[in-house]
Every structure is written in structure tokens, then in C-alpha cells.
């Protein structure tokens, strides 16, 4: 209902203005969506994983920009739930579950190789130096869960631990902010942050984990981010049907069903997940192209969903990307059809 009655009707305007109405996030908070990752015993909303996937896909089909910005919060709630820092949990978790405190994330010290953000230990915490090239939700979120790689050496090798902290999402001593101009999801307020001896006090640290422990948690998040692509594909297919191309829509729908199954199977067989994620983005990209063709030349006019969806499908090729997804996608895109 939210996707069809609120998000989708506003999606063209969100795209044109490059801004998401605050009322979208207030509604998601009021309806419990900020609590999806929360422990039900702490007023989180209990949904099974298949339902969560369906929710993410449905919201993405309504408005990718809103969904991408909101879904960053999921990791913040997970981080606060699992933190070994009880003071931080007590301070923020319940408000985060209710959506009164809203969060974003940066994995710049965890995912890129080499890491882009580093943490040097001090007597009272850490000093962060480097950059977070993509941080979504600036000016929208209140807090940022930020990861940085420990610079310490053990036997001449970096220890590789990943230090995660929860900081206020505001320009501060040691942080500079560069707005980014994107052709899709501009309303996500994605910025580049640069850190120069930024002080992360020990009391704001949520976790310090090994790189392999961090990667072990990536399977679920890759499955979740697949919903951005399947949501865009779903919307394109539906609109292809609406302009009278039922056969084309049915063919694409069958492919979408198969890709959803592959994504689900990837949870038990993580080595297959990157290829399934790549297939989802490739389908979104192809379905958006098919929608433009089905609509005709009018599809590239500024106030048409078709051109918006082409740009948003492109966004799903890279946003929440990982090196193995990138390799799979390049393989699929290079293959073509003779
Ligand atoms: C619009 C948009 C918003 C994003 N918002 C966020 C966000 O809020 N939080 C977040 O952590 N990531 C965010 N990302 C990063 C994204 O999740 C991917 O991890 C990143 O774009 C890597 O994809 P790539 O295809 O550029 O990777 P590659 O081509 O493999 O890498 C390109 C460069 O980006 C660096 N890089 C790779 N992964 C990341 C990463 N996760 N963070 C920073 N640098 C990286 C690599 O070191 C490399 O130098 C966003 C990306 C986009 C396009």
C-alpha cells in the first residue's frame, strides 16, 4: 500500500527535485519499517526473511531513491543490537527501532581493498584518516555507522581488524563533506566524506571485528541489496504489461522469478550469490530498456517513468556493488546475443 499509494505516485517528483519528502521517512517510521532489523523484545518488528525480502522489493518498485536511503538504517539497528557497548545500545537502539533516530552507514574501511578509511589507536579511542567516497543520507540521517581499518601492525602485517563506530552525521572537526551529483537517486543525498585525524572516542565504538567475521555477515546484506534490482525490474515489467505488451512482460516475469529463486538459493550457497546479484541487475537494466522501447519515443521524455527507471536500473549495477558482483556483471554484459 505504501509503495503503490505513496512512494510510486511521488517517484517522478523525487527524481526531478533530487529530494525525498521527509513525510516518506516519517510514514515508514510510523508504520514500523525502521524497526525491521530490531529485536521484537525491544519493540522491533518481527518479520521472517522471505517477508523482509518481499517488503524491500515492493518498496524499491515504488521508489528506489527512498528505499535505498531508508535501508541503510537496517545495518545501524543491527550494529546497535549486536554491539558490545551497552551504553551506546541503551542510548540509541530503542529510538532507532522507532525511527526517531535515523542512520546511515559507511563501509569504506571494510569492503574496498585496499581500505579507504583507516583507524589509528590512541589512549582514548581512534583517529580516523582517509575517505568514505559514498555515504548516503547526509542531511537526512542523524547518525552514521562508520567503519575504518585498524592501522596497527602485528608481526609487520596490518591486523586487519575493522573498527566500527556510531558518529553524529554532521560536519565536524576532522570531517569535510563533498556533495555528489548523480544521474539517479540524487535525493539519497549521497556525499563523499574526508577524514583527517577525526577523533572517534572509545565510547562511540560499536565493534571491532576481524575482516573475515565482517565478510561472513555480507551474505544476508547482498541478498537484501538484490531487492533494489528486482524491485526496479518488477516495476518495469508491470509497466510493459500496462502498455499492452503482455507477452514481453510474461517472458521477463519468468526470468525475474528464476532470479529470485537463485538469490534465495544463494543464502545456502553463498558462492552463487554474486552471479545471482549480477543477474538481477542485468535483468533490471534490460527490462528498463524494454520499457522505453515498449512506451516508444515518449519514454525518454523527462516526466516519464521509463527514463527514470533506466537511470535507476543503471544505479543498481553499481550501488551496493562488490568486486565479485562486478566481475559477474561484466561477464554477463559482455556476452551479448548474436
Ligand atoms: C549512489 C551510491 C550510494 C552509495 N552509498 C553508500 C553508502 O551509504 N555506504 C557505503 O558504504 N557505500 C555506499 N556506496 C558504495 C557501494 O555500496 C559500493 O560498494 C561501491 O560503489 C563499490 O562499487 P564500485 O562498482 O564502485 O566498486 P569498484 O569499481 O570495485 O571500486 C571503485 C572504487 O571504490 C572503492 N570502493 C569499493 N567499495 C566501496 C565502498 N563500499 N565504499 C567506498 N568505496 C568503495 C574501491 O576501493 C575503488 O577505489 C554507494 C554507491 C553508490 C553508487
Defining key terms:
about 350 residues, alpha+beta, Butyryl-Coa Dehydrogenase, subunit A, domain 1, Butyryl-CoA Dehydrogenase, subunit A, domain 2, Butyryl-CoA Dehydrogenase, subunit A, domain 3, 3 domains, eight-stranded mixed beta sheet, two-stranded antiparallel sheet, binds flavin-adenine dinucleotide
Structure description:
The chain has 338 residues and is α+β, with helices and mostly antiparallel strands. The protein folds into 3 domains: 2-98, Acyl-CoA dehydrogenase/oxidase, N-terminal domain (Butyryl-Coa Dehydrogenase, subunit A, domain 1, Orthogonal Bundle); 103-210, Butyryl-CoA Dehydrogenase, subunit A, domain 2 (Beta Barrel), CATH 2.40.110.10; 217-335, Butyryl-CoA Dehydrogenase, subunit A, domain 3 (Up-down Bundle). It has 11 helices and 10 strands. It has helices spanning 2-17, 22-30, 49-62, 64-82, 86-98, 211-216, 218-242, 246-268, 273-295, 305-318, 323-335, and strands at residues 103-106, 117-122, 125-135, 143-150, 153-154, 157-158, 162-168, 175-179, 191-201, 205-209. The strands form 2 sheets. Strands 1, 2, 3, 4, 7, 8, 9 and 10 form an 8-stranded mixed β-sheet that branches. A hairpin with a 2-residue loop joins strand 5 and strand 6 (157-158). Helix 4 (64-82) runs antiparallel to helix 5 (86-98) and helix 7 (218-242) runs parallel beside helix 9 (273-295). The radius of gyration is 20 Å and the shape is globular. It binds flavin-adenine dinucleotide. Flavin-adenine dinucleotide binds next to strand 1, strand 3 and helix 11.
Amino acid at each position: 500500500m505504501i509503495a503503490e499509494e505513496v512512494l510510486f505516485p511521488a517517484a517522478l517528483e523525487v527524481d526531478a527535485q533530487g529530494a525525498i519528502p521527509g513525510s516518506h521517512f516519517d510514514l515508514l517510521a510510523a508504520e514500523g519499517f525502521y524497526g525491521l532489523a530490531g529485536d521484537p523484545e525491544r519493540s522491533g518488528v518481527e518479520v521472517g526473511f522471505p517477508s523482509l525480502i518481499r517488503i524491500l522489493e515492493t518498496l524499491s518498485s515504488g521508489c528506489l531513491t527512498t528505499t535505498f536511503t531508508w535501508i541503510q538504517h537496517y545495518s545501524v539497528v543491527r550494529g546497535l543490537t549486536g554491539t558490545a557497548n551497552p551504553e551506546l545500545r541503551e542510548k540509541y537502539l530503542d529510538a532507532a527501532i522507532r525511527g526517531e533516530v535515523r542512520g546511515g552507514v559507511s563501509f569504506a574501511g571494510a569492503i574496498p581493498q585496499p581500505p579507504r578509511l583507516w583507524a589509528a589507536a590512541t589512549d582514548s579511542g581512534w583517529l580516523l584518516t582517509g575517505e568514505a567516497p559514498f555515504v548516503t543520507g547526509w542531511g537526512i540521517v542523524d547518525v552514521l555507522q562508520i567503519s575504518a581499518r585498524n592501522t596497527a601492525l602485528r608481526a609487520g602485517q596490518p591486523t586487519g581488524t575493522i573498527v566500527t563506530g556510531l558518529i553524529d552525521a554532521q560536519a565536524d572537526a576532522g570531517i569535510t563533506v563533498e556533495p555528489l551529483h548523480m544521474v539517479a537517486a540524487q535525493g539519497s543525498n549521497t556525499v563523499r566524506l574526508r577524514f583527517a585525524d577525526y577523533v572517534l572516542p572509545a565510547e562511540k565504538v560499536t565493534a571491532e571485528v576481524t575482516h573475515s567475521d565482517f565478510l561472513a555477515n555480507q551474505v544476508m546484506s547482498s541478498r537484501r541489496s538484490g531487492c533494489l534490482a528486482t524491485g526496479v525490474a518488477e516495476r518495469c515489467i508491470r509497466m510493459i504489461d500496462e502498455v499492452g505488451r503482455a507477452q514481453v512482460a510474461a517472458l521477463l516475469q519468468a526470468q525475474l522469478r528464476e532470479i529470485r529463486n537463485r538469490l534465495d538459493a544463494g543464502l545456502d550457497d553463498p558462492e552463487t550469490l554474486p552471479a545471482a546479484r549480477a543477474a538481477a541487475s542485468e535483468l533490471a537494466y534490460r527490462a528498463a530498456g524494454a520499457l522505453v522501447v515498449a512506451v516508444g519515443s515518449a519514454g525518454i521524455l523527462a516526466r516519464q517513468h521509463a527514463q527514470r527507471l533506466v537511470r535507476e536500473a543503471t544505479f543498481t549495477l553499481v550501488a551496493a556493488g562488490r568486486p565479485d558482483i562486478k566481475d559477474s556483471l561484466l561477464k554477463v554484459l559482455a556476452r551479448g546475443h548474436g
